[in-house]
Structure formats: structure tokens, C-alpha cells
Design goal:
The protein contains four helices and six strands; from the N terminus they run E-H-E-E-H-E-E-H-E-H. The protein has about 150 residues and is an alpha/beta fold. GO terms for molecular function: actin binding.
């Protein structure tokens, strides 16, 4: 059995995370500059980049409308809610969006690069894997956050 090919990078490994990506996440997390950030893998640069940000006044519908219908993305969403004790809270969700209609190559690339990005984004409370909009409905976030 040969192990020669194991050390060579292939199409699904070695994805970097741009400094701008981490900085944008920190602005969402610490300064509340954004409500959400959508990340895209740039296959040519072999990096995860920021594709879109949503301002603090934007809602969950604005966020979900920003995700492509037929392609994968990563996203973080800062979810504000009020607890049963009437306390204002905020939880950051990491969403791995991989619609069933997206290309198999894209699904593989996003699946194998997810852990690297997650390690770079310190401070995420919950993670959701979604293949269709119902799996990341606002009610799903509410249930997880409580």
C-alpha cells in the first residue's frame, strides 16, 4: 500500500482564511457593526473571503435572502433575543449552507474547509448545518438559543 499521495494538497484541502475574514467577524462579535456576515470560498486564491455583510438594522429575512439558492456558503448571524426572565441576550450562530441543488464539488469543498474556518472564528455559540431553508428557520435559532 502506497502513501505517497497523502502529503500533496488536493482540491479539498489547504484552504486559507483571509485576515479580512477574521477582522470582519470580530467587528460583528465585539462591536456589533454587522448583524450577519456571509463567507465564500475563492477557489483560485484558495481562501475564505467575506462576500457580504448586513448592518445591525437588517433582519433574519434579509440574511436568508442573501444566501444563494444553488451554491454553498458559510455565514455567521448575531441573534438577539429576550429570555423568559426578560433579559436581552445575543448568540452568534455559524451556519454551513449547503443546498442540495449545489454542485457536488462545492459541497465537498465547503464540508472539508469548514473546521478550519470555525477554528479561526472564536466565540461562536451554535452551529447549524442546513441543506434547505427550513433547517435554518428563525424558529430553529430560537429553540437553540434558549
Amino acid at each position: 500500500m502506497s502513501f505517497r499521495g497523502l502529503s500533496r494538497p488536493n482540491a479539498t484541502s489547504g484552504m486559507g482564511v483571509a485576515d479580512h475574514t477574521k477582522d470582519t467577524f470580530l467587528q460583528l462579535q465585539r462591536k456589533k457593526v454587522y448583524r450577519y456576515v456571509i463567507f465564500k470560498i475563492d477557489e483560485k486564491k484558495r481562501e475564505v473571503l467575506v462576500e457580504k455583510t448586513g448592518g445591525p438594522a437588517e433582519g433574519y429575512d434579509d440574511f436568508t435572502a442573501s444566501l444563494p439558492e444553488n451554491d454553498c456558503r458559510y455565514a455567521v448571524y448575531d441573534f438577539d433575543f429576550v429570555t423568559s426572565e426578560n433579559c436581552q441576550k445575543s448568540k452568534i450562530f455559524f451556519i454551513a449552507w449547503s443546498p442540495s441543488s449545489s454542485r457536488i464539488r462545492a459541497k465537498m469543498l465547503y464540508a472539508t474547509s469548514k473546521d478550519r474556518l470555525r477554528r479561526e472564528l472564536d466565540g461562536i455559540h451554535y452551529e447549524i448545518q442546513a441543506t434547505d431553508p427550513t433547517e435554518m428557520d428563525l424558529e430553529v435559532l430560537k429553540d437553540r438559543a434558549r
